[in-house]
Design goal:
Elements (H helix, E strand, L loop, with lengths): L1 E10 L5 H12 L2 E6 L5 E7 L1 H13 L5 E10 L7 E3 L2
Parallel strand pairs: 2-5
Antiparallel strand pairs: 1-3, 1-4, 2-3
Helix pairs in contact: 1-2
Enzyme class: hydrolase
EC number: 3.6.1.7
InterPro entries: Acylphosphatase, Acylphosphatase-like_dom, Acylphosphatase-like_dom_sf
């Protein structure tokens, strides 16, 4: 099991990024959360086997239609055994 912390910058708020990511995460089968940050970025943590993490990271690098992703910074995090995927306020 692997867990990563991701910060996505660009035009990623107000374009359905978090809710589309939740749909993708559930479809792929990753656990974790996603939220908007005050600085205009989107922050997420995802946990799953590496192949599933890679699939979600590939989506995050492009985002939903209407988004413009400039960068996605990925760092490793300690797995927590979290289940389900949430959109945080």
């Amino acid at each position: 099991m692997k867990r990563v912390h991701v910060t996505v910058s660009g035009d990623v708020q107000g374009v359905g990024y978090r809710y589309t990511m939740r749909m993708i995460a559930v479809e792929v089968g990753v656990a974790g959360w996603v939220r908007n940050r005050r600085d205009g970025t989107v922050e997420a943590e995802i946990e799953a086997p590496p192949a599933q993490i890679d699939e979600v990271l590939a989506w995050m690098a492009a985002g939903p239609p209407g988004a413009r992703v400039d960068s996605a910074r990925v760092t490793d995090a300690a797995p927590t055994g979290e289940r389900g995927f949430r959109v945080l306020d």
